[in-house]
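Notebook entry, structure prediction.
Reason for the run: the old model in the group folder had no record of what sequence produced it. Starting over properly, with the input documented here first.
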Amino acid sequence: MPYVLLLFSIVFEVFGSFMLKLSNGFTRGLPVAGVVVGYGLCFYLLSNVLQFLPLGPVYATWSGLGTILTVLVGVLFFKERINRTGIIGILLLVIGLVLLNMTK
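New structure, fully documented this time:
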């Protein structure tokens, strides 16, 4: 169950970041509400996960997967570009997360 909560926490973090981009510097009300709800749920769920799993691997997984998914959201929804160096960085993040989670 903690891993499911971690996954939902990551999804809400990415949602909050998506809404942050849409908020246009906190000038648009509905996206600002999305930021508050997204990050609020994200940190609530993350705090529950930390009751069962160790901080280091959880935070690394949360931030790493959140970063990767946020990059994908930028590419898909905001037509942002990612170059070869960015792809290598994402692959290194994935490798690091796999290695870190194998040490439990």
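Summary: The CA atoms of residues 86 and 92 lie 10 Å apart.
The old model has been moved to the deprecated folder.
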